[in-house]
Amino acid sequence: MAKKWLGSLLLPLPLLLIMTFLGLWLLHKQHKRSGRTLVLLSLLSLCLLSTRPVANALMAPLETQYPTHLPALRTQGQDPIQDIVVLGAAQAADPSLPLLSQLGHAGLVRISEGVSLAHAYPEARLIVSGYAGGEGRSSAELYAAVAQALGIAESRIIALPLPKDTAEEAMAIAPLIHGRHALLVTSASHMPRAMALFHHQGAKPTAAPVGHHVKESQGSLPLYTYLPSARYLERSEIAWHEYLGLLKEAVSGQL
């Protein structure tokens, strides 16, 4: 729990707010130069992280490491797809809501792609994971329910509701797909960390990234899209979270 609190405080918005309040405190204590510098630096950083160019610059290196479109996986000489792995994401298991509304955006795009691939490769198993995190149902259970509602037979689905993070998911799933041709479905920004953790466990799935944030328009964009926006701050925060995750796994020796 302490690690989660620390990780949350290191995200851009809490960290920059802490810097701002520290700067105001320094101003109150008559340390005017240090206080002004800290307040201006934190506010400028917050503005920049809330703009489209900066958010995309942070996100693009993560999302472009693996190809957007899967290659032809059933060409002659290649093994058929045997497993489709969908990693967990945050959910709000409110039974009063429709099933799809109980999934967050990341979870929704991940299981949608997983189900699409399961229909494309009808002999493959669908392995879904993710714990409850204080909710009534785990993301693995919600994924399984969505898959069945969209026409995937229950006998094809393996649900793993216990793994709490990507490292635990890799540990639990790697033995199931060892020596098998598997596709790994997760958000494009999350894919580099996920693939590294699966490789660390001896599994070598094929990446199937979804949920891309960096989308370039073919036409010219209006100027207001370059103004600071909460949407772009969220994009920067997602990228920041992934870089922190990569750093943590590298320090712990898992990458």
UniProtKB/TrEMBL annotation:
Keywords: Membrane, Transmembrane, Transmembrane helix. It comes from the Bacteria. The chain crosses the membrane at residues 6-26. The keyword Iron does not apply. The keyword Membrane applies. Residues 84-245 form the DUF218 domain. InterPro entries: Cell_Envelope_Assoc (IPR051599), DUF218 (IPR003848), Rossmann-like_a/b/a_fold (IPR014729). Pfam families: DUF218. This is Membrane protein. It comes from Oceanisphaera marina. The lineage of its organism: Bacteria, Pseudomonadati, Pseudomonadota, Gammaproteobacteria, Aeromonadales.
